[in-house]
Task: structure prediction
Amino acid sequence: MESRTVTQAELQGIVNNLKARGARLITIVGADTGDNIEVLYFFNTGVDSTETYRIIVPKAGGNEEVDSITPIMPASYIAENELSEMFGVKVKGMPGRFFLHPSVNAPLRRK
Amino acid sequence: MRTTIQFGPQHPVWIEPIRLKLTTDGEIVKDASLEAGYVHKGLEKKFEWDYNKAAYLSERVCAICTQHHSTCYCTAVEGTMGLELPRKAAIIRMIMLELERLHSHLLAIGLTLEAIGFENLFMLCFRDREVVLDVFERTTGNRVLHGINIVGGVTRNIGPEMAKELMDFCDDMEKRAHDLEKMIVNSYTIKQRMQGVGVMSESLAKDLCVVGPVARGSNVPYDVRAIAPYLLYKEVKVTPVVEKDGDCWARSLVRVRELFQSIDLIRQLVPLLEGAPDELFAKSKALPDGENFARVEAPRGELFYYVRGKKSKELDRVKIRTSTYGNGPGIVPLIKGAHLADVGFITITFDPCIGCFDR
Result:
């Protein structure tokens, strides 16, 4: 699987560009790799073509933050909230709760 | 005067629990918010175990599109192991996928008709669905959870006798689907009730990246079988079924027309079984390593699995993006401005699967 690692600032420009090209968001995937939380953004960009962008967020004791892409792509609303509640990564401007009860904290985050 | 109404989590129109908080002004819904998570099972965490057992676990995500879930999961894992699926196993998987689309669409059409009070036609849809379930029982031994997909292939063959039975089934099902189509498409009452209700424009469908019959009913030809063919979908002819109006009628028509598409695909696939080598399973010496994702077109729309292996039997991370998860953001904009009496009906034309949504 090919993916491109980008910074958070770059991602906003990339998503704007993808939106202008008519790309569709497939989903956002979070993964805990030990020292970092990786966030993968999957886009469908045309017939038989997808693009994957990865941002790496170093763990900072639950104070991690990523920028939201929901203002550009409203389809990411649920995925960003899920990322937030499952991994404890705050997504700016998002309530951060969708599926889980407030008493449950970041169940997919490893110590 | 504005009133707040709790619509759900237990509501007769939905089989599963989901809650809509509606702010109404008289009969018109002015604002809505969606709340899910009532059947959250934490399945993504459970997937971090033996990759062979997880194929069976993936079937349990959704009871309607079990074969789609396990096919998508197995395709993703096979990618991390560099495993090539035997041709016959791919054909058998595809036949099962199309059979499953038939029974899922019959269920969705039936439930939509029940939501508008047409219980008789709902029963007719379910009667026809039973025929598909009987075929599942004959081919896989199970009606709902088939359990034939394993990483590397399938566990059951389709022999020449069963192939003939499948072709006979296609003839019978086509006749039944034509009868249903006549009753639904020519019904003045159903048309009047559905047309112009819950309209999703093409631009909104593109913005919200909705999938499946919801997208195709709004003139967005997004069908994974056509745009990113998996298994052997390159060898068969799949043209996305598209309707232009974007209302409840268009979404239902897409499902009715896709019944014939699935029957046609099964007819194209069964003869391919004859020339395929009699090999159902490819054994791998490697363990899942690295990342991979797979997409399949489930009855409700695009289904996505992301798998990350760690060179051990246990998987590191599995993410499931189901079709209802993709369609979720589309529900609220359609309800805003609708009549209170249409809320349940509009949501049911999305064919929501809350078990999939919450996982």
